[in-house]
Every structure is written in structure tokens, then in C-alpha cells.
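Mods, move this if it's the wrong board.
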Amino acid sequence: MKLMVKSESIATPRVELTELVRMAQQEDRSAFEEIVRRTTGLARKTAFGVVRPHQVDDVVQEAFLTVYQKLHHLRDPAAFQAWLARIVLHACYALRKKSPSVAEPEDVPAPDTTAGVAGKLDMRAALEQLKEEDRNVLIMREFLKFSYEEIAYATRLPVGTVRSRLHYGRKKLKSLLG
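Not the wrong board. C-alpha cells:
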């Protein structure tokens, strides 16, 4: 049993996740279950920026099924979170292609909606107007707090391209939000 010392670096959870990924790649089912438990929040945050709230659980479930089936293809276990984000985004866009983009009743704010909820709906609408590539980069940087290198890995783009898309995506988003 490993004792955790408070002075350890903040990267300890990531190191542990990397080790869990290695164990899961060797078909340790409990390690995979722990990975799912630890990264479901990340997957949900990623999906929430792209699909409607009532679709998030379906996307996350589909993404983890893909992760389970393809985990042995991941070469760098330390890049798991970026890899997961890419899989979630692919699942989001696959779902969007299958189902028409019709406004759902839950997306229409009630007359007494608070400003926070209205702001989230405005943000979602503005994100939907961005190009998919720009939206992906913005979601990973602003909502998931990925580094430029992690975004580059997840999107398979050079870091310079990531920075450029982030710049233009922010600029476009700012103009859409007023």
C-alpha cells in the first residue's frame, strides 16, 4: 500500500492514471473501471461543449466503449486524457450526424431563467457556429484546460496550428457573444 504525502507534486494523479492505463492495456479490468471512474468528468465536460445536454451520457458511454476496444492501440499512456478527449469528440460528431440538429424543449430557457443559464445557452449557441476544428481547440483549452501540446496530440495538429486556431476561435467567439 502506497502512502500519499501532502508535499507530493500535483501531477501524482496523472502518474497514477498513466499506471492504470498500462495495467488496463494488460487487460486488468479493475484498472479500466478505475480509469472510467476518474475520467468520466473529463469526458462529460468534453461532450457538453458539443452535444445537447440530454445526449452527453450516450456520447460518454459510446466513447468509453471505444476506449475499451482500442486501448491497446494507445502508444503513450501519459497521453490518455488527450486521446480520450479526441475519442469523445469523434463520438459527439458521429451522434450529431445521426440525429438532426432540432432544438429540444430543454434548450429553450424558461421566462424566469437566471442569467447564468442564459449565458451557458448563449455560449453553446456561439460554439455551434464555429468551425468544428476551432470549436474542438477552444473546448480543450478553455473548458478542459489542456496544454497546447495535449491539444496538438488530441487533434493531430502542430502546436503552431493549435495556437492559431485558438486565437481565431477566441476572436470569432468574442464577436458572436457580442
